[in-house]
Amino acid sequence: MPDVYRALDHMGIRHAETTVCETDDWMAAYCHRYGQDTQIIIASQDSDFFQLITDNVQILRYRGDRSVVWDVAYTQEKLCVAPNRYADFKSLTGDPADNIKGADKIGPKTAAWLLQEFGSLESIISRAEEITKPSVRTSILQNAERLRKNYQLIRLSGEAEIPFALEDLHYTDDGITTTQVLTAIGVR
Hints:
Layout: H1 2-11, H2 23-34, E1 40-43, E2 57-61, E3 68-70, H3 72-79, H4 86-93, E4 94-95, E5 100-101, H5 108-118, H6 121-126, H7 134-142, H8 144-154, H9 178-184
Parallel strand pairs: 1-2
Antiparallel strand pairs: 2-3, 4-5
């Protein structure tokens, strides 16, 4: 990390660490505070950021030639849910990467169907008796508290204090190369 920090300092890029919240919370706070007026692209493989997607916020999932930018339309096409319902969706299906178990009998298609039918996780739980498929209804009723807890773990509220104001984060790309940065900080 010291080499990364020296490289960022050399390029004039602000950086900070936190023990008060998770970095995800900072990123969500920036999106909530500035995403209405500013184009934001988050480069991450963490699907939790899908819930932050708006017309001005996209997620770059870098994979070389197979890189994808997730936007509102792509999220809707791939998951059949709006980005603002992603935390509800993931609460239902679970997230093995974060060791979060969803509800039994509920995969991505069923979760998308439930959200299209009922609108939100809380509405699905409160109206579970209306679910026509018995195994899904039973699963929702039996797992209601876990699903609510999942939502609290997955949802990025955007309420964290941020370390820098937007105007403090201005960066001008002056064409410096990776080799030049590594040489300047003494790594090469």
